[in-house]
Amino acid sequence: MEYNIYVVGIGPGGIDGMTYGAVKAIGECDLVVGYKVYVELVKEIFPKKEYFSSAMKQEKDRVQYAIDAALEGKKVAVISSGDSGVYGMAGLVHEMAEKTPQLSIRVIAGVTAATSGAALLGAPLIHDFAVISLSDLLTPWEDIEKRLELAAKGDFCICIYNPSSKKRADYLQKACDILLQWQKEDLVCGIVRNVGRAGEEYRIVTLKELRNEAVDMFSTIFIGNSNTKVMHGKMVTPRGYKYV
């Protein structure tokens, strides 16, 4: 089937973190549309493509540009970092293209920060886990608080996206305060920064230590459950296999 718009998760951004399907889809497109930081990453791999980029908070403008270009006959890739279906552009593209049924859309899965960061740390998400963003740009903080509390109360491993920004400098601290109501201070946690990019690093800390850590939007946080351990210097959540 021929598609007019591919919504592509580009993984961390480098060619090593892209799926074959992502590379193939972008390679087939005439135009690549995305947030300017992600467009610069893709330009290094596909320098001869036509590009349209814009700043943060201009997602609707980018999607409309992509739809208009597709209606003119171009094959378009709308890119997101990680997976486009996890805090990415896939939902918005489908929503805004609802009234243009003549367009066909395909979402191409990518490697999201939860899985790429987990791989760097070891195996923190082997058992049930929740993924929660601390950004209250589109979600009320009250809802985020409720989700954190319920995930901690249920003893889920938790992966936290968007843990802090200039306007939300204390949000990770607030999140840890909620988690500490249900989990022990020495709970194993991990911090991954710039996964798959220059400056990649990770550290394993306790929940108490995490509360006072300085992190940014390039960081992904991993909160273990009550069974998570440090093994061989890595963060591991046993699934419960009986091997002894």
Spell out the CATH superfamily of the largest domain.
Answer: Tetrapyrrole methylase, C-terminal domain
Secondary structure: number of strands? 13
Which secondary-structure class do the elements indicate?
alpha/beta
Architecture per CATH nomenclature, i.e. the level-2 architecture of the largest domain:
2-Layer Sandwich
CATH-assigned fold name of the largest domain: Methyltransferase, Cobalt-precorrin-4 Transmethylase, Domain 2
Q: Please count the helical segments.
A: 8
How would you concisely characterize the structure shown here?
It contains eight helices and 13 strands. By secondary structure, the chain is of the alpha/beta class. The strands form three sheets. A five-stranded parallel beta sheet has the order 3-2-4-1-5, with helices on both faces.
